[in-house]
Amino acid sequence: VQLVESGGGLAQPGGSLRLSCAASGFTFSSYVMGWYRQVPGKECELVAPITPAGGSINYADSVKGRFTISRDNAKNTVYLQMNSLKLGDTAVYYCYVGQGATPCWGQGTQVTVSS
């Protein structure tokens, strides 16, 4: 299993970023995918999961109405569109696969929201 996150960077408050997670090594279309995030020194937070068909989505209260998770099963990629970014969204974002996945594991991609 390989997950490669990308798209992180620096954004201003109110700005947008789109994260991508390219997956390989398993049957992507059969698995729940999603995103966690973690601020250093704080607990890992589940941002949003997405079912194999993309039909059931639950967001953390902290990102509802601002973030959108989606997936393209033809491209083996899951996305996180982040709009109206806030300072509190600053974190390392981790893609995950499967409902039993280890939270906040892997390379991750850094998102920094700063004015």
What does this structure look like?
- 0% of the residues lie in helices and 45% in strands.
- The protein is built from no helices and 9 strands.
- The radius of gyration is 13 Å and the shape is globular.
- The chain has a 5-stranded mixed β-sheet with strand order 2-9-8-4-5, with no helix packed on it. Strands 1-3-7-6 form a 4-stranded antiparallel β-sheet, with no helix packed on it.
- With 115 residues, the protein is mostly beta strands.
Measured by DSSP, the beta-strand proportion falls in: over 45%
Number of strands: 9
Helix count equals: 0
Structural class: mainly beta
Strand neighbour order, sheet with most strands:
2-9-8-4-5
Shape: globular
Task: Offer a quick outline of the entry.
By secondary structure, the protein is mostly beta strands. It has no helices and nine strands.
